[in-house]
Amino acid sequence: MSELLQFLISGITVGAIYAAIALGFTLIYNASGVVNFAQGEFVVIGGMTAAALIGAGVPVWIAAPLAVIAGMLVGVLLYRLAIRPAGQAPLVSLIIITIGASIFLRGAMQAVFDKQIHRYDGFSGDAPLRVGGATILPQSLWIIGGSVAVFAFLAWFLNRTRAGRGIRATASNRMAAALVGINTGRAMNLSFALSAAIGALAGVLATPVTFTSYDVGVLMALKGFSATMLGGVGSPLGALAGGLLIGLIEALTAGYISSDYKDASAFIVILLVLFLRPQGLFGARIMERV
Amino acid sequence: MAETTEPLLSITGLRSAYGPIEVLHGIDLTVREGEIVSLVGANGAGKTTLMRCISGVQPIKAGAIRLAGEDIARRPDHARASLGIAHSPEGRQIFGDLSVSENLALGGYHRRDALGPDMEEVYRLFPILRDKSALPAGGLSGGQQQMLAIGRAIMGRPRLLLLDEPSMGLAPVLVDQVFAVVKSLRDRGVTLLMVEQNAYAALSIADRGYVMEQGEITLSGLASELIADPRIREAYLGA
Ligand SMILES: Nc1ncnc2c1ncn2[C@@H]1O[C@H](COP(=O)(O)OP(=O)(O)OP(=O)(O)O)[C@@H](O)[C@H]1O
Ligand SMILES: [Mg+2]
């Protein structure tokens, strides 16, 4: 029993990280229709920047926000230097640009930081708390709380704010958005900035538990992307649920079967779900007449 | 007729191109406050392109577009809505994955005042939109989407309303309804520039009309004169 609880705790912790990454995907997809494969690199930028600053003696409560801002700035640069100049290029080209950007960012990080594995202490220490018969790291609570907060923020932002509605309208029909007075360039810019910030935040929160190095972004992007597909592309609720579900499947498979199979079992579940429900668990089925 | 005031819309020498191919070769056109002006012409004449230049989503190569005297040709597309221009585009261009009511609310995106009364007005004009208000707009029929596109433009509370083929895809009874809406908008002080396939209907409710051929204005005048003009009757009215 306590064993199951332990697996659930670790599954939810990892799942919350995937969920945060998936939420970043969701935001950019909502604004532009682009699946941003560089999303994983923002997780690394967040973690590596925080690690470098904390290593240099900067207190964590200053280092963490600075790392998030660093991620946000790189996100804006990605949009301005790589996505925007491509103009009205087809979506596939834009997606390939993000793959290129992710390779570039990985190289840049190796140069700016190093090739070592990094971590820093959990925000509230590393002494495990006892829950039932299991233990949970205080940092896990930070990770779970952070993902839920990001989800709540996005759900509110996209539906209840003017800027958020502008982002959704821009994704839905760029010309019509311009016609009703939405500055579509600004909407795209904002979505890349926020999405990068969300990715960096995930990295900052996760690094004490998962560690980080310049090359973990690919795996992070893959997991976040799987979570997005499972939950339904474009849906914040789907991103949250998809992330948690994949984390749980991985943890339970690793615990009860073998950690060799954890990635495979997650992908089998994703394939099954997409086979039965191509729009994902929470994705809207879009029927557009032309 | 002597011009007493500045026209609401005044276009002079407007040229526009798609890549290297120029499709508008120096258009002159004016719309005075409170008028309904119809633009007729064969397929490919450039009517839609002209409308898109006015609302700013199509770049122009030369010429001036003045709104109440102010040259707006260099203002970005998203600034035009708050200047008082609303555009119900050809092909509807609704926000398919957003709900009907979200589509309407987005029509008033640039406004800072309450949208409720105008939303109510659009629902009164097109009751079917009220019934479907919570559904994704992409699931509406073509005619319903057309009503939504017009309703969304009305939500912008425009001074100048651009309607590109508003009766497209509508059943005859709904076409009458749309033309009734157009007239009621004019009665409320909205100025309209309208492109219509149905040239006869469009000219019957218009004050003036322009005929466009291959990127140039070839004829203009009072709508009543154009309807009677044998050249128009032959080419566009099928008489
Ligand atoms: N996106 C585009 N790219 C290239 N050429 C275009 C584009 N849109 C229109 N054209 C060309 O510009 C010219 C004018 O087209 P436009 O759509 O403005 O005509 P229209 O008068 O609205 O025709 P219709 O009555 O069929 O709607 C046509 O020759 C058309 O082929
Ligand atoms: Mg046209």
TrEMBL record, chain A:
Subcellular locations according to the entry? Cell membrane
Q: Where are the transmembrane segments?
A: 7-29, 49-79, 91-113, 140-158, 192-214, 234-257, 264-287
Top-level taxon: Bacteria
KW Cell membrane (keyword) present: yes
What UniProt keywords apply to this chain's record, in alphabetical order? Amino-acid transport, Cell membrane, Membrane, Transmembrane, Transmembrane helix, Transport
Among Pfam families, the record links this protein to: BPD_transp_2
Q: How does it sit in the membrane?
A: Multi-pass membrane protein
Similarity comment text for this entry: Belongs to the binding-protein-dependent transport system permease family. LivHM subfamily.
Protein name as annotated: Branched-chain amino acid transport system permease protein
Species the sequence originates in: Limimaricola variabilis
Give the classification, highest ranks.
Answer: Bacteria, Pseudomonadati, Pseudomonadota, Alphaproteobacteria, Rhodobacterales
TrEMBL record, chain B:
Which molecular-function annotation in GO is an example for this chain?
A: ATP binding
Quick check: keyword Nucleotide-binding in the entry?
yes
Q: Name one Pfam family in it.
A: ABC_tran
Q: Where is the ABC transporter domain?
A: 9-239
Question: What is the name of the protein in this document?
Answer: Branched-chain amino acid transport system ATP-binding protein
Q: Which UniProt keywords apply?
A: Amino-acid transport, ATP-binding, Nucleotide-binding, Transport
- PROSITE patterns noted in UniProt: ABC_TRANSPORTER_1, ABC_TRANSPORTER_2
**Which family, according to UniProt?**
Belongs to the ABC transporter superfamily.
